[in-house]
Design goal:
mainly alpha, globular
């Protein structure tokens, strides 16, 4: 846990540092003293047309970025929210606020910074993407640093990329194996996955999760850029389907509360504007999932089409298999069990004494975690 906090802190500090760097370079504070301003928004333009021209091309370019955003965000941070501390009632609400605040600020400001530092038709960027250049050669940040004439920052950026990659791999290996273990506990995965080592490590789950990494060797034949695009499409669609499932689960939970006469104001943590925001999220992510492979139709790309939509087929096939195999039915809102485990969680939280900050640093830290 401490290692993940350190790696995450390195990434956040680096992103904030590069945003500040972009602000300085944009105002002419770099070695070349060139004031960039927003000149690249005029020439060649702020948005690049994709699979078309004019406003249609710009819209498709924007939509393709939404798919990339689905790949980048994922859900693992939210999976870990209740695990940060045993006191879940106050932790979840604060961490959700921090995460939903951090994502827009960091991503939007980062995208804005890149947009003012280099144009979208930068030859170094296009050449690195076309040639499948290794490492961070295709990173807009690296190219912007080279253009600004700051020689030491690319090495720092590459070091952060390496730490981020190792941190992400470690975290997702842990999460994937524990997902399998949880499925086995609930009877939705083979029983042998419950076998653990003396230290409690589910080694079969870890081995299966780690074996997925062998697919990366496909880059030896198909090219790293193509294989990365395949993985990006698969991860993006699975993330979208997961968010859709979360929205559906909340809609049904809200219906159960209403059917059983439970006032939402009695809940410790509740999100505003529900269930309308859940319906909006379901429609929003469903639209992106349905059209996420639009780029494969002109001309038709069979490999891209399969990777863009195979996740939906697997999702529906697994759902249909479980319904047929187990013969389960949709739970009626009046009969939904929304009380099991609540008393135990309330009792566990009651054992935690209130935290009192000794200084302003601890006040900020307690608010975050």
């Amino acid at each position: 846990m401490a290692k993940q906090i350190i790696f995450a802190s390195i990434k956040i500090i680096t992103i904030v540092g590069f945003i500040v760097f972009a602000f300085i370079i944009d105002l002419g504070g770099g070695p070349t003293h060139d004031r960039l301003g927003f000149q690249y928004w005029n020439n060649p333009g702020a948005m690049k047309a994709y699979k078309g021209t004019g406003s249609n091309g710009r819209f498709l370019g924007f939509f393709s970025v939404l798919i990339n955003a689905a790949y980048l965000t994922g859900l693992w941070s939210f999976w870990r929210l209740p695990r940060v501390r045993s006191r879940t009632h106050g932790t979840i609400s604060r961490r959700l606020f921090v995460v939903f605040l951090a994502y827009p600020v960091l991503y939007v400001l980062g995208s804005l910074a890149i947009g003012v530092l280099i144009p979208y038709d930068e030859p170094l960027l296009l050449g690195a993407i076309q040639d499948g250049a290794p490492g961070g050669a295709a990173s807009p940040w690296i190219i912007a640093i080279y253009r600004a004439g700051v020689p030491v920052l690319p090495s720092i950026k590459n070091a952060v990329i390496l730490t981020s990659a190792s941190s992400s791999a470690n975290a997702h290996l842990y999460i994937g194996s524990r997902y399998l273990y949880a499925l086995a506990q609930s009877g939705q995965a083979p029983h042998f996955l419950l076998k653990c080592s003396e230290r409690g490590v589910p080694y079969f789950c870890v081995a299966i999760s780690a074996s997925i990494t062998l697919l990366t060797y496909m880059s030896c034949t198909s090219g790293a850029e193509i294989v990365f695009q395949w993985f990006q499409d698969i991860v993006a669609i699975s993330t979208l389907l997961t968010w859709m499932s979360v929205s559906i689960a909340y809609i049904r939970f809200h219906a159960a509360l209403k059917a059983q006469g439970i006032d939402r104001r009695s809940l410790v943590f509740k999100s505003p504007f529900q269930p309308y925001t859940a319906y909006f999220s379901l429609c929003f992510f469903g639209t992106i999932a349905f059209f996420n492979g639009f780029y494969t139709f002109g001309p038709f790309d069979i490999h891209g089409f399969v990777t863009a939509y195979v996740g939906i087929l697997i999702y529906l096939a697994l759902y249909a298999f479980w319904k047929i195999f187990k013969g389960t039915k949709l739970v009626n809102a009046h009969e939904a069990d929304i009380h099991t485990g609540k008393a135990a969680m309330d009792a566990a939280d009651a054992h935690w004494p209130p935290r009192v900050a000794r200084n302003w640093v601890e006040s900020i830290w307690f608010w975050i975690v």
